[in-house]
Amino acid sequence: MNENEFKIEIVWQQMTPELSAEVIEFWLEEKALPDIKLAEERVKQVLVVCRENQTNDIVGVATAVKMAVPRLMNNVVYYYRHFVAETCRKKNIGTEMFGVSREHLNERFASGQDTSAKGLFTVTESKILQKSRRQGVSPAGVFMGVNDKGEHLRIAWFDGAKIID
Fold first, then answer.
1. What pTM was computed for the model?
2. Between β-strands 119-124 and 137-138, what pairing exists: parallel, antiparallel or unpaired?
3. Which residue among 39, 44, 48, 99 sits deepest, i.e. has the most Cβ atoms within 10 Å of its Cβ?
4. pLDDT at position 22, please?
5. 81-115 pLDDT per residue, tens
6. How far lies 146's CA from each of 1, 94, 102, 125, 155, in Å?
7. Sheet holding 58-69, edge to edge
8. Domain 6-157: which topology?
9. Domain boundaries, given as residue ranges, for the chain
10. Band (134; pLDDT cuts 50, 70, 90)
């Protein structure tokens, strides 16, 4: 990602009505979500947005929501998702948004500000990414296997996280 071309903003728990409307419009125009009802629910989970510097248009959005994952002995983690505009793919925006998101939530965890979730859990739906990202351990986390759709599952634990059973 070229820092002169794009900027990532942390907006976790700071969403305004204007930004919410802008994110919903982005998702619907890009056909990232099927309908406005789902978009209105998901917008409550927005963690970061990526903007094109020249136009200030949103080109990427990442969300996170706490959930217990059965494959992780029901430890609570953030279910992390991101979507990048089709015209901006292959520019490393998704990887950069993940890094900023993980760093922000990890700092909250490590400082004791919010220890209720222990890491970021991701599901890689993209067949292209599944083929190109084959490392067992990567910046996106540790490979855990696949789900019933064959999508890759990864977990990126926060620093100092302890597993409970």
1. 0.90
2. unpaired
3. 48
4. 98
5. 999 999 998 888 988 999 999 999 999 999 999 99
6. 28, 20, 22, 10, 12
7. 6-10, 46-52, 58-69, 75-84, 119-124, 152-157, 141-146, 137-138
8. Aminopeptidase (3.40.630)
9. 6-157
10. low
The token duo for 106 is 């990890």
In the chain, the amino acid numbered 107 is E
Measured in residues, the chain has a length of: 165
Structure token pair of residue 131: 């083929």
**Residue that has been written with the tokens 């217990």 in this structure:** 68
